[in-house]
Amino acid sequence: MATHSVPIRTRDRAKTLSASSVFDGALYWSVMSGIYLAFGFLWYYAAKEKLFDQNGDMPAGLAKAYKGSFLESLPGLNAAWLLLGLLEGVVFLVILASLLTGEFLPARPKPILLFGLGLSMATFAVMAFAQNMIADHESVASLFTYMTGTAVIVLLVRMLPPYRGRLERSSNE
Hints:
The chain has about 170 residues and is mostly helical.
């Protein structure tokens, strides 16, 4: 059985690769800008509200919900609110540090961003723990969803450059 090969037209292949590169680049920059905008502003406004707008004082409605809970006695409701605001502020600063060090660039490894995303997951877990204490199961479910979504974003970042190139090289060896 005779087989024949079809010659590839170089110009058409170059156009296809060029279009693919444009869409790959657009995808990369869309994903990275989405991550930095979403997580940066999420933690900035959360920390700002607790630390500056409310001066570290838990709102009355939440304080009423947590009355008689473990948090009321240790570390105290306002202290817990302040600590949560500080944790959110740290996450924001880590995301900002990632941005300022240029980790958003495709060739750069992203350890600070990945740490910030991991810290985001821990922050969601702390909030879920507190909501579980007062049996606010709807909020716990939402926070668990946020934490799980953040885990998916960690995996997504690990599939983008420069990690994608490393994965492709190791699978070809």
